[in-house]
């Protein structure tokens, strides 16, 4: 039986640390604040917004919601971003994506100041992830992969890690963060040849392919740690599943994250920490 790496335990420890930092800021007259900028009413955006608001309330982080209609124009969206950039009381901004197709999403992302970009959507944040220099933060989900492994004392130094998925939201930044922790990373994707050979040779496998239950027993071997970042609803199983076929691989590997209850449980805790770090830097 594999050890189940539950994100809730890691989130609890991270939130305790964040609460202490919030208290220290408040004692110096600084109230950390998040602004959530949402266009439209996408159900997944609403769910994450509710979770973020709940986390902020629990940690005494101020939070403001700015909701724009689906019909908002590009100039109106940019004006809203400009206002948040100029508001010194706002330390972090979370802008939901994807934006409606009539909007220029890259331009909107670049309009946000990297110092307030607490979810890694600007090129400035990406530069920070890749170079270690500058303002901005890693995407929360990518950072959550690292925090979960650290919480469970998974040694990364010198270890072989296969990251499956090359998105700018998870795969590529997670690979860079893992390399910064001295792991030896192979970045794979949907067109990688002989994928199973690569993943079986790894000590740690991070699945962020975006396809339900794609990674099965043929991709894994005993002794491995598996981090499943995917989340999908399975009509056949009538429940949420990940990119990994959990039921099939759990008897094989040494440790694995569940879906739900794994990496996703950490994302709002990472978001809160990024807000605090942004407030500390501004102070």
Over the alpha carbons, how many angstroms does the gyration radius reach?
Answer: 19 Å
SS summary, helix count:
10
CATH topology of the largest domain: Rossmann fold
Strand content: 15-25%
How would you state the average pLDDT, rounded?
A: 96
Strand segment count: 11
CATH hierarchy: architecture of the largest domain: 3-Layer(aba) Sandwich
Poorly predicted ranges (pLDDT <50, ≥5 residues)? none
SSE ordering: EHEHEHEHHHEHEHEEEEHEH
CATH class of the largest domain: Alpha Beta
Number of domains: 2
Folded structure, characterized:
With 283 residues, the chain is an alpha/beta fold. It has two domains: 28-122, Leucine Dehydrogenase, chain A, domain 1 (Rossmann fold); 140-263, NAD(P)-binding Rossmann-like Domain (Rossmann fold), CATH 3.40.50.720. Helix content is 40%, strand content 16%. The protein contains ten helices and eleven strands. The chain is globular and about 50 Å long. The protein starts with a strand and ends with a helix.
